[in-house]
Amino acid sequence: MKAIYTSAATIAALLLAPAAGASWITFEAAGGSSAAISPARDAFRAAVGGGSVAGANGSFAGLRREINWDGVPDARADPNPLPGNFFNVNSPRGAVFSTPGTGFLVSANAGQATPTLFGFPGDLQTFSAQRLFTAVNSNITDITFFVPGTGLAATTSAFGAIFVDVELLGETKIELFDATNSLLLAREVLVGGNQGLSFVGAVANAGEKISRVRLTSGANAILSNGVRANESTDMVVMDDFLYAEPTRAVPAPSSLALAAVGLLGGLAAWRRRRA
Ligand SMILES: [Ca+2]
Ligand SMILES: [Ca+2]
Ligand SMILES: [Ca+2]
Question: What is the CA(230)–ligand 1 centre distance, in A?
Answer without folding.
Answer: 12
